[in-house]
Amino acid sequence: MLLSPKRAGIYASALLAASLLVMSRPGTTQDVPLISGGVGFVTSTNAGNTTYIPVISPLLAAPLGNHILVESRATILDSYFPKGGGHSGYTSSSFLGLSYLQMDYIASSHLTVVAGEFLTPFGTYNERLSPIWISNFESAPLIFNLGTMNTGSSVGGMLRGSAISNDHVWLDYAGYFSAASTNEQFKSQRASGARTSLYFPQARLEVGGSYGRLLEETHENFEGLHLWWQPADALVKLRSEFAHGPHSKGYWVESEFHLASASSGMTLRRAIQPVFRWQQTFRSSPDPTDGLPGADTKRADFGLDILFPHEVRINSSYSRQSSTQDTNIWQTGIVYRFLFPTWRGK
Amino acid sequence: MNTDLKIRAACIVLTFSLASASLPAFSWRIESIQDSSAGARQSQARHQPAAPESKGAIKFKQNCSRCHEAPQGFSSRISGTILRHMRVRASLSPQDERDILRFLNP
Predict the structure, then answer these.
(1) How many Cα atoms sit within 13 Å of B22 on the Cβ side?
(2) Residue A204 with chain B: CB contacts under 8 Å
(3) C-alpha distance from B49 to closest chain A C-alpha (Å)
(4) In whole angstroms, what is the distance from residue A88 CA to residue A79 CA?
(5) What ipTM is given for this predicted complex?
(6) What residues 66-85 of chain B have any CB closer than 8 A to a CB of chain A?
(7) B-chain residues within 8 Å CB-CB of A71?
(8) How is chain A split into domains, by residue range?
């Protein structure tokens, strides 16, 4: 019991990380391995019950030679929540997990080969918005599990890269295969999938599509679409995603408002960001495992985020979720983002 | 429930005191961002007055605030590592990676 498989996994990874740090000889003084991530404190009040969650999510990125990058992120959190069932006081549970541990081999200008445990490329939320210092809201979208095969991580290989990149348009792609893994630290399902997106840098418009196929006893297909529009100097950024699974589907649309344009620099007015997210899910047949609500659901999230100097941000939000029952959810989070080299260069 | 209320009150007090304590620091932040775009500053200094923005500066603006707030500044010793990481995450082409790196470390 002293060393559970979970802890052993984490220690093994830490050991691997340490040896990588020692092995990696930066090619130039700009290639020093880095440690980054976020540390924060989140509260979530749902139907009068508040959960408190201290969380830290460190990331390591270490280049090896000219073509390889090893990257890994872990999340360690404790949640303290009311005992419930007529008992007073709080109880807690902890979570310690690796989100990914991957080796990226930059094979050519258009191709990067990824091996290991990686974030499943489906839609945008998982790869881009899930880090605690990035997300505008403390809770993931209701459709998060569709296409990310429940665990959000895959164990296997992925090919990705930029197919076209010029001043007018960028086209990127990612395709992966994942094996089933029940290992405590590397949980994944047998699946494969792909995503491509087109980005128009002048309009700052991105559209993309994702596909995933679960290859366990039952084979299931997931499809997704995303649209992001973040016009330069506009006072609003729009992000949206739609996902469809065999038993349910849904979408979210998020807008981030600014009280001043980006070109005015990071002023106080720019640092205050009202955010709004509208979500809807639709259930076509029962599936207790797909992660979506059991009945059709609508949810409005109203948030106010403040970006402080020294990489501190505070997110606060009120959500109203209507399904078979209406619930009010209040969430706050304070997050500090850290970023430093692992050692001093020459 | 009482402790619950207390903790929530403490969170609110903390939020507001942090907010007011850091107001003066906002001016610091503006400087630090200007510092971190040293490339832009240098090119402005060299070519007067309406110098065309470098490719790297344009690409930095078009890309580095797509998924998250553009970083407030970081050590030049890790700029290559960051760019390699973001190249994979954001599928940057090698040319984009070089242009942005040159902009960050002129």
Answers:
(1) 20
(2) 62, 66
(3) 18
(4) 16
(5) 0.89
(6) 66-69, 71-72, 74-82, 84-85
(7) 85, 88
(8) 5-341
The residue range of the domain holding B98 is 49-106
- Using the predicted structure, report yes or no on whether residue B48 has a pLDDT greater than 60: no
One-letter amino acid for residue A221 of the chain: N
- Classified by CATH at the fold level, domain A5-341 comes out as Porin (2.40.160)
Give residues 26 to 55 of B whose Cβ lies within 8 Å of A: 26, 28-30, 32-34
Tally the domains of chain B.
1
- The verdict on residue B85 lying in a domain is yes
Helices and strands counted in chain A (H then E): 2, 16
- Per-residue confidence band for A21, with pLDDT thresholds at 50, 70 and 90: low
- Mutation for A interface: B16, B17, B77, most A CBs within 10 A: B77
**Is residue B21 within 8 angstroms of chain A, CB to CB?**
no
Find tokens 């007529």 and name the residue: A86
Instruction: Say how far apart CA A273 and CA A236 lie, in whole Å.
Output: 10
Give the pLDDT confidence score for residue A222 in this predicted structure. Answer: 97
